């Protein structure tokens, strides 16, 4: 059956790509939701290691408030950010509620908590898009950076989802693999891309940011690997603050999906609407700083130079 990713309609639209040259929208293109900031992994590069804000799980009350407002504008949500969504006991209820409101739903996962029953539930809920977050271009690099020996488990879960989607003739979700690399050989990167492009719907390859964790955590374990980081440190005009809003598990609304510790929090959704935060004086000030190349004035903007290619 023909497959389609409705999120690509947004990402590839002229309005989304050229957002800095256009008037601010009444409401964001996308809203990122953090079901939890707990994770089942302890990856070498992840800001989970240096996060100081409290950990917890989003309530259904907060989630419904988010979805109800997004539904007014037909705005999709992405279940994503600084935790593993599948740890949330009500995740499937979240997805079901959002789909009842006829909005698109995306899920990003490390994939290790999936099994046949959960995969079939995602199919039946008509999840629109899923990203399997991997690491590196080889099993060895995954093991090093993801700090576990479960590469084969992840690979098997992805292949199981593909098999079941084909077997039961589901046309969704769109299945995407995302990885970030350090200094792997180009031949290894090409082999990874070629392998998965023949199986999944799309593949994304980016760079791994180790500096963020090393600067804050300062552990001897990380320092030897800093020379593996190959990110080109080049600041570009920020589009994030005109494209999306992100909501932490406790309802805090932040200007950026990369804001792991809440330094760019605008307030809490219990007190104001998303539309009010979108047009708030505080967010306008952040936009002004970034428009005027003030990246170094804000955290985590001062270390924001991630590059990412999708195929």
TrEMBL record:
Top-rank taxon: Bacteria
GO molecular function: catalytic activity; iron-sulfur cluster binding; metal ion binding
A Pfam family matched in the record: SPASM
Keyword line: 4Fe-4S, Iron, Iron-sulfur, Metal-binding, S-adenosyl-L-methionine
Cofactor(s) listed: [4Fe-4S] cluster
Ranges in coiled-coil conformation: none
Domain spans labelled Radical SAM core: 25-248
Protein name: Coenzyme PQQ synthesis protein E
Gene coding for it: pqqE_1
């Amino acid at each position: 059956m023909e497959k389609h990713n409705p999120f690509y309609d947004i990402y590839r639209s002229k309005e989304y790509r050229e957002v800095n040259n256009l008037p601010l929208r009444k409401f964001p293109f996308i809203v990122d939701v953090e079901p939890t900031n707990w994770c089942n992994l302890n990856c070498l590069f992840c800001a989970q290691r240096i996060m100081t804000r409290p950990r917890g799980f989003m309530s259904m009350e907060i989630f419904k408030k988010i979805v109800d407002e997004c539904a007014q504008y037909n705005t999709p949500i992405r279940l994503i950010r600084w935790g593993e969504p599948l740890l949330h006991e009500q995740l499937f209820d979240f997805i079901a509620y959002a789909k009842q409101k006829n909005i698109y739903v995306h899920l990003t996962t490390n994939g290790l908590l999936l099994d046949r029953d959960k995969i079939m539930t995602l199919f039946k809920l008509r999840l629109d898009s899923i990203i399997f977050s991997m690491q590196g271009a080889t099993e060895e690099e995954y093991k090093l950076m993801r700090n576990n020996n479960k590469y084969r488990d992840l690979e098997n879960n992805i292949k199981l989802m593909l098999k079941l989607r084909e077997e039961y003739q589901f046309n969704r979700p769109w299945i995407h693999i995302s990885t970030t690399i350090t200094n792997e050989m180009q031949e290894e990167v090409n082999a990874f891309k070629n392998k998965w492009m023949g199986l999944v719907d799309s593949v994304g390859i980016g760079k791994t940011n180790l500096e963020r964790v090393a600067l804050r955590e300062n552990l001897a374990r990380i320092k030897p690997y800093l020379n593996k980081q190959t990110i080109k440190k080049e600041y570009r005009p920020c589009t994030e603050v005109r494209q999306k809003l992100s909501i932490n598990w406790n309802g805090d609304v932040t200007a950026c999906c990369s804001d792991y510790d809440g330094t760019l929090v605008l307030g809490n959704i219990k007190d104001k609407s998303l539309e009010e935060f979108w047009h708030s004086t505080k967010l306008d000030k952040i936009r002004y700083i970034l428009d005027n190349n003030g990246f170094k004035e804000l955290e985590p903007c001062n270390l924001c130079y991630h590059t990412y290619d999708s195929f």
